[in-house]
Each structure stands twice: as C-alpha cells, then as structure tokens.
Automatic annotation (TrEMBL):
Pfam family, any one: RHH_8
Xref: SUPFAM superfamilies: Ribbon-helix-helix
Gene3D superfamilies for the chain: Met repressor-like
Ranges in a coiled coil: none
Stated name of the protein: Transcriptional regulator, contains Arc/MetJ-type RHH (Ribbon-helix-helix) DNA-binding domain
InterPro entries: Arc_rbn_hlx_hlx (IPR013321), RHH_8 (IPR041088), Ribbon_hlx_hlx (IPR010985)
GO BP annotation list: regulation of DNA-templated transcription
C-alpha cells in the first residue's frame, strides 16, 4: 500500500457546486472585474484555502486523533491479495484520495476491506463501490 502527499492538479480535483446570495455573487464579480482575481473560481479557491490555513492546526490534530492517512492511498489488486493471504482485513481511513485499482474484483474488496472512511474522494469501479456500499462511512 502506498501513501503519497498530493497536490491537486486539474485532473485530481472534484467539482463542488455552491449556492450564493446575489449580493455575495455581485461582490465576487466586482473583485474579478477590478482585477483582484482572474475569475470567480479563483476567488472561491483562495477563500477556501485561507480558511483551511486558518484551521490547519485543528485539521492536523483531528487527522492524528482519528488515525487518518493524509494524501493519497492506493490499493492495488496485489496489495489486497497480500492482505487476504495474511488473513487480515483493512479499516481504511483517508483524508484526500482513496483509490482502489481497476483490476480489484468486488469479491476481493469484500474479503479484505472491513470499513472505508474517506474525507475527500474515492476512486473505485462502480462494481467495487456497490459491493462496499454498506461499509463506506
């Protein structure tokens, strides 16, 4: 199992939809128009990063307390077969991206993964997601 710190690239991001009041939206458009930000997304990303920086200590403490893996955690078929051969089962907890290989069968996932908690994104085949649905928190 490999763990890597990740920096989001365009293809490693998730789309989030938000509703804003018209006055807030107008103020955002004004700041974009005045050149403070290149577009609405730039302002919203900057605001979110500023808030995350403000609360960075709380995030670090919570990650440690909850034993979360921070970043990317990928499980290949070979990883899960090794877990199965050892007679073990996984409780996966990730803040970032959890990825289960495309060649992992639903049966192998069920045999090796007891629980799956992801704060961020989970990448797995639709079949594996469906098989693990009752174990995803």
């Amino acid at each position: 199992m490999s763990v890597h710190e990740i920096r989001p690239k365009l293809n490693d991001s998730e789309k989030v939809t938000i509703n804003l009041g018209l006055i807030d939206l107008g103020q955002i458009d004004l700041l974009v128009q005045e050149g403070f930000y290149s577009n609405r997304t730039d302002l919203i990303r900057t605001a979110i990063r500023n808030q995350l920086n403000t609360h960075a200590d709380v995030v670090k403490q919570t990650v440690a307390r909850k034993s979360l893996v921070l970043g990317l955690q990928h499980y290949s078929r070979a990883d899960l077969e090794a877990v199965q051969a050892a007679g073990e089962r996984l409780q996966i907890q990730v803040l970032g991206l959890a990825s289960i290989g495309a060649d992992v069968s639903p049966e192998l996932a069920l045999a090796t993964i007891d629980s799956l908690t992801v704060l961020g994104a989970l990448r797995a085949s639709p079949e594996v997601r469906a098989a693990l649905a009752g174990r995803i928190h």
